[in-house]
Amino acid sequence: MPYFELSQFLITQDEIQQAVSAVKNEHPQYLFVDTDIDRNLNTGLVNKGAKRVGYVYKESEWLVQRLNLLKEVFNVVRQDYEPVEKALLVTVYRKKHIWR
Q1: Residue 71 falls within a domain, yes or no?
Q2: Quick one: pLDDT at residue 95?
């Protein structure tokens, strides 16, 4: 991948396209993906009207934004991968064998 911690560097469509291109061009054998990548991430937002949450709302908003960007990258390449092992937090996807 073009970045060590992908979620920290997906800011604009340019970085998203770089990440997609890296997967499509380098054909990594495995991808490690959040098991709940397809969940509705809006349910992860902390109610900003709640007392004493302060920065927690902003942190939850930031997390939802980051996960949506990772989801955007994965959705472009997911058809080339199949899940091979699933755990509580992470699912391992393996590159499908494509005969040419």
Answers
A1: yes
A2: 95
| Structure-token pair, residue 95 | 């590159």
Q: Torsion angle, CA of 58/89/4/60, rounded to 10 degrees?
A: 0
Length of the chain: 100
Question: If we measure between CA atoms, which residue out of 1, 89, 84 comes closest to residue 37?
Answer: 89
pLDDT digits (tens, 9 = 90+) for 70-90: 999 999 999 999 999 999 999
Q: Domain total for the chain?
A: 1
Asked if residue 34 belongs to a domain, the reply is yes
The long-range contacts involving 5-10, CB below 8 angstroms and separated by at least 24 positions, are 6/70, 6/73, 7/66, 7/67, 7/69, 7/70, 8/66, 10/66, 10/69, 10/70, 10/72, 10/73
For residue 80, give its domain range: 6-95
Whether residue 66 is contained in a domain is answered as: yes
- What single-letter amino acid sits at 48? K
| β-bridge partners, 32 | 92
